[in-house]
Design a protein that fits this description.
Elements: E1 2-8, E2 11-16, E3 26-36, H1 40-45, E4 67-74, E5 88-91, E6 94-95, H2 101-104, E7 117-118, E8 130-134, E9 138-140, H3 147-153, H4 156-166, E10 174-178, H5 182-193, E11 197-202, H6 205-213, E12 218-221, H7 227-233, E13 240-245, H8 250-259, E14 260-268, H9 279-284, E15 288-291, H10 297-310, E16 318-322, H11 327-335, E17 341-345
Helix pairs in contact: 4-5, 4-10, 7-8
């Protein structure tokens, strides 16, 4: 089969690899939707030959870590409770030893015994017609959700959901969401669905308009206004109760901390930028700051159930849908960072 790979220096290419065959405990998926994640840009923009997370795999690696599709083949030893042909599924795109305390809790990316496999980075991902994974990485896709929605939940939307749960968001809260790329836009949508008042911030007018469409109560263009002052103006001078920082920009991290009220809480999910923040204001204002990295397979299932049961229109965050042979145009568009989420449909 033919799959897309990152060639480095803002180039994509295609590689021919053998059609996958499931081994013991494995399944092969017919991919229906493969999402494009903002973290893909690190590999897309990186130099030729770049590897992330200590990956040393030989040969080309098919990209795509937001898989969603249908079980096409089942390997030996896979029980009917794990997977059956025709099942609609997402993939928790990590795999570890399977037996340590973190793997057993659904957090394979935190495996204590082996360097976890990250599909789309260290093993073949979903930017291809088929993908082979351990059956235990599968997460059921509710019938109410599209394959595109499942792809989003498999990374970006699921990441925002996990951070909002750790923030203990309630319907009485005001939350500032910094950055309205795919992860931040999902955070805005989910926080609004949870009943919170959402203040969405970005530098892109197009993304701020999308934020309004998915539920933001107010938007702030940080290229034209001081974000901290603007948030305080909207909260009677107090600041937001909570903040979700999804841009990865150093200035946004500092602004998120400064923009929450005393006793406020800030979650960092954006990757990149310089991490340095002033500790003094955090201590003196009793601010809680934490980082949140993706989600467990249990959290992924909970996010999908929440979206299905509450009628969250996850598909609304998509602005672009492409065929896989349009990958070069797709990643140029994503690299411009002015649109919403993109997805390849097989």
């Amino acid at each position: 089969m033919r799959g897309m790979i990152f060639a480095g220096d803002r180039q994509v290419d295609f590689a021919e690899v053998p059609d996958p065959t499931p081994g013991p405990g494995e399944v092969v998926l017919a991919i229906k939707a493969s999402g494009i994640c903002g973290s893909d840009l690190h590999m897309y923009r990186g130099p030729k030959g770049m590897r992330l997370l200590g990956v040393t795999a030989e040969g080309p690696i098919i990209a795509g870590h937001e898989p969603c599709g249908v079980v096409a083949a089942v390997g030996p030893g896979v029980t009917q409770f794990e997977a059956r042909e025709g099942d609609r599924v997402m993939v928790h795109h990590y795999w570890g030893c399977g037996v340590c305390r973190h793997c057993r809790a659904g957090w394979s990316q935190l495996c204590e015994r082996v360097a976890p496999t990250v599909y789309g980075i260290g093993a073949h991902g979903a930017h291809a017609p088929y993908m082979k994974v351990p059956a235990r990485t599968l997460v059921p896709l509710p019938e109410a959700l599209s394959f595109e929605a499942g792809a989003a939940i498999s990374c970006g939307t699921g990441t925002s959901y996990a951070a909002l749960k750790r923030l203990k968001l309630t319907g009485g809260d005001t939350i500032a969401v910094f950055g309205q790329g795919p992860v931040g836009l999902a955070g805005t949508q989910l926080a609004a669905a949870m009943g919170a008042r959402v203040i969405a911030l970005d530098v892109s007018p197009e993304r701020l308009e999308l934020a309004k469409e998915v539920g933001a109560a107010e938007t702030i263009d940080v290229s034209a206004a001081d974000p901290v002052a603007a948030i305080k103006d909207l909260t009677d001078g107090h600041g937001a109760d909570l903040a979700l920082e999804a841009s990865g920009a150093s200035e946004a991290r500092k602004a998120a901390i400064a923009a929450v009220d005393i006793w406020g809480t800030v979650a960092f999910v954006g990757v990149g930028g310089e991490p340095a923040v002033e500790v003094g204001p955090i201590m003196r204002r009793q601010i809680t700051v934490f980082g949140s990295w993706t989600f467990s397979n249990i959290g992924q299932a909970e996010c999908a159930a929440f979206a299905a049961e509450r009628g969250v229109a996850v598909d609304q965050i998509f602005t672009d849908r492409w065929r896989l042979d349009q990958a070069a145009d797709a990643y140029r568009r994503v690299d411009a960072q002015a649109a919403g989420k993109g997805v390849f449909l097989m």
